[in-house]
Design goal:
Rhomboid-like fold, 2 domains, two-stranded antiparallel ribbon, 8 helices
């Protein structure tokens, strides 16, 4: 359906300049000069002394067509609608990651005896990963877990909290976020345990990447006010308490659960960096 544009009355021209491209400067009222309270006259900075400023020659409402169409109205509505609200959580990549974790758990704990140890040793984060140039170990530890409870907790967090982030970034960008946070987490795990503390530490688990997902919630809210504030507060409290208590136990010599606090911190920093380095997510 087409209707005549009520703003320009079908002419398609800007009603301010009538298509001339110039309007009277509102700062100096067309004189080209301004006067200070003490009576000093100076050239108007808005129009550079010309007395007029540039103006679009076409009508903003109909984009110069002179008519309002259904397609134009749809474009205007989409322009002023919060695009993120149009996207729903996705779970395709999340499901694949959960399945990979389960498969590798059964391979390393219930698979053929001659494969269990070699698989674990080939994928875990080790102190010699840089010396041996085995850089895949920065990512592959997310496929390994230290037990059934460890696996169950990480799979729960994957299934519960990753789909909204996947829906925001799309499946392939979410995978990049997951891999990037895994790499930053395992790098800081290597740096913290081996270089800073001098403790050989074979790090495993998806929690490095999951802490990156948690910090992505925080960064997306802080930067663009995406996601519910309650979810963001939960992640902030959860990660803050776990990191503070974990490092206190670690440096106090009471880390009996062998929690990889350096890996958690590295993953969280990776999630913040990922969100702030990339533009606003569009859902595709």
């Amino acid at each position: 359906m087409k209707t005549s544009c009520p703003r320009c009355e079908g002419s398609g021209q800007c009603i301010e300049c009538r298509g001339s491209g110039k309007v009277t400067c509102p700062t100096c009222q067309g004189t080209g000069e301004c006067t200070t309270p003490r009576g000093t006259t100076f050239k108007c900075k808005s129009c550079q002394g010309g007395g007029s400023i540039s103006c679009p020659v076409t009508c903003d409402s109909c984009q110069g067509s002179g008519v309002i169409t259904d397609q134009l109205q749809k474009q205007v509505r989409e322009k002023y609608t919060a695009r993120f609200a149009n996207y729903s959580p996705l779970s395709r990549m999340t499901t694949y990651l959960v399945m990979l974790d389960v498969v590798f758990y059964f391979l390393t704990y219930w698979g053929p005896p001659d494969l269990r140890g070699p698989i674990f040793n080939a994928l875990a984060n080790t102190p010699a990963l840089f010396a041996d140039h085995e850089y895949w170990r920065l990512v592959t530890p997310v496929l390994l877990h230290g037990g059934l409870l460890h696996l169950a907790m990480n799979c729960y967090y994957l299934a519960q909290y990753c789909p909204p982030i996947e829906g925001a970034y799309s499946s392939h960008r979410f995978l990049w976020l997951y891999v990037f946070c895994a790499a930053t987490g395992n790098f800081l795990s290597w740096l913290g345990h081996w270089v800073i503390q001098g403790q050989p530490y074979a790090s495993v688990g998806a929690s490095t990447a999951l802490f990156g997902v948690g910090s992505a919630y925080l960064a997306l809210y802080w930067r663009w006010r995406l996601f519910d504030q309650g979810v963001v507060r939960w992640w902030l409290g959860y990660m803050g308490i776990l990191l503070a208590a974990g490092f206190a136990m670690d440096f106090g010599g009471y880390n009996v659960l062998n929690i990889d606090n350096w890996g958690h911190l590295g993953g969280a920093l990776g999630g913040l960096a990922f969100v702030y380095l990339l533009p606003r997510p569009t859902g595709h």
